[in-house]
Each structure stands twice: as C-alpha cells, then as structure tokens.
Amino acid sequence: MRIFFILSAVLLTGCFGDTDDLKLHIANVQSTTASSIEPMPEVTIFDHFDYSAQTLRSPFDAPKPEAIQEKIQQMSGCLSPDPRRRKQPLEKFSLSDLIMRGTLGELGVTWALLEASDNTLHRVAVGSYVGLYHGRITSVSQENIKVLELIPDGAGCWVERETVVTMTQASAEEQRQ
Q1: Burial class of residue 10, CB neighbours in 10 A (0-12, 13-18, 19+)
Q2: What is the dihedral of CA 80, 81, 83, 86, to 10 degrees?
Q3: Which residues in the chain come in under a pLDDT of 50?
Q4: What is the pLDDT of residue 147?
Q5: Where are the domains of the chain?
Q6: How far apart are alpha carbons 145 and 95 in whole angstroms?
Q7: Domain 89-176 has CATH 2.40.160.210
Q8: Taking the mean position of all CA atoms in its chain, how far away is CA 154?
Q9: In angstroms, rounded to a whole number, what is the distance separating the alpha carbons of residues 142 and 95?
Q10: pLDDT tens per residue, range 86-108
Q11: CB-CB contact of 75 with 157 (8 Å)
C-alpha cells in the first residue's frame, strides 16, 4: 500500500510541473480568434387585430336544431338525386372521359357503345346513368347520346343540364391496333 502512495505522489507532481507551453498555446488562440458576437435578430412587430365574430356561433359548437330544420325545409322543395339509387359502372367517369364508339339495335331498342378512359367498352340505353353528376341518358341516336345531368347549385339544390356526347370516329392509327 505504501508503494501505491509513493507512486501516486510521483505522478501527481508531474502534473503540476512546467505549464509554460500550455499558457503559450492559450495566449496564441486568444490572440488569433475574433471575439465578436453576432447581433440579435430584429423582432418583428406584432399586428394586433380585434376579434369581431364574438356574437356569432362558435365554429366548434353544433348548430342549433332550429337551423338544421330550416335547412331541411328549404331543401325539401328542391330537385335532388336519389341517394338510395345504386351507382352504375359509368358513373365513376366524367363525360369527357367517355367516347361514343357506335350503336346497336334490336326490336326497336337502340344501345350506344361507350368507351371509358380505362379502355373498357360499355353498352348503354335510355335510362342508364353515366358521368359524375348523376347523368341519365334521355335519348340515343346514331350520331349522339343526350344526357340529363343534375348539377349542384351551391345552395343545397340541384339544377338540370342537358349534355350531348357525340359519336367520334376512331383514327386510322387506333383502327390498326
């Protein structure tokens, strides 16, 4: 144990010895480095405004039952699509994505052939639904299809609009494929 104390005493005296080179290095570093601090960023001025909708209903509160009933009464006299009607396959395509390719007929019934943007061919007749706006086919001829769409008017009602899908001839390149 005595040897341990003697050895540690010798080592510790070596640590407290010559420190001139350390002082020289610190002085050199202090003289070569700049001691400037960047200025603080400018604080932007806060523009205060008064909240003016204090008397209105909070957007986080549910509307009062009277307001909901009034909206239902307003919409009851409006034209609207049947929400219980089952959607048909061509109602997921806009009318601009449907191309009339031809017609078929049998026993006084005329069908139109519509090609969708996913390259599928569909047979439709009067009464079929197409397009994104609840479009119902009202007439089919060899030149075109007339579609009656229900367009929302923004006030909870719907407006009828007639659209025509005309026959387009396939280009020569499409016919070769």
Answers
A1: exposed
A2: 170
A3: 73, 171-177
A4: 92
A5: 89-176
A6: 11
A7: no
A8: 20
A9: 18
A10: 999 888 988 888 889 888 888 88
A11: yes
